[in-house]
Amino acid sequence: MLINCVAYENGQRLSELPVEQISDYLARPGCFVWVALRDATPAELDQMQEEFGLHELAVEDARHGHQRPKIEEYGDSVFTVMHLVEPLGDDYNLGELNVFVGGNYVLSVRNRSQQNFLGVRARCEREPHLLSHGPAFVFYALMDAVVDRYFPVVDQLESELEAIEEKIFVEGAARNNIERLYGLKRKVMQLKHVVAPLIEVAGKLSGGRGPAGCASSRDYFRDVYDHLMRLDASIDTIRETIGTAIQVNLSMVAISDSEVSKRLAAWAGIFAVATAFAGIWGMNFEFMPELGWKYGYPAALLAIAATCLILYRRFRRAGWL
To answer: Phi/psi of residue 215, each to 5°?
Structure first.
């Protein structure tokens, strides 16, 4: 679906125009066209390919989607794939933003995402001295908007991790903590797969050997690269903390199991002594000491109770009970 199609000249907005007139404005010196599509149909992509002369391989990638974040050069044009991350319940919805950039055009194709970039267009139009740099600055503004939307996602992950850490030492919460930690680890890996490849993209755009059409905005792409490096460092820190939290949680489970085992062993030892006494006096021999004694039975019970009490106090003093 076509969101908007606008022509710009020398940093100023000229007008919105129908797709059929794109080629007319592309022929004007100092003019470029910025087109935004959402969930584009094959027919719309074919039309844009005809108007802008897009490379068929780039159009094929945009048509099928589910691409890894990347940048590809086709002559004087650039094709870039970026992922859009949106919280969706306990998971993430991963959309895509495909950007085609040429000397006098920018085409953005947004797929499977509710995020819009109307604010990016408004920002660019408020800064005509920067917009006069042409499609390269628009490309930067789109990438910057995508990257900036990763920061709240990282903040949310950090908050979730802190909430889990507060319950690590709560008795009986081990299983729930493990499940939540592994769920959080999966989301962190999703974000890592989004950010890490984009670092390579931003590094290429900000480097000296980047696409010639983006050279005028190289300093701005360097700023995006710095943001991505910060995000990547934060993600790595969260991953390491999750790993530590999992180990601590498993250690707490092992300690808890050890405490239970010691209690069971202590009680088993106490009852084993009582069983031994009862087993000895339960043997049906004719001649046994105190067998005919009037107080033999109470004395036996007293001996068993005293022995068990002594063992209980020793186990209690040793911390087993």
So the answer is: -60, -35
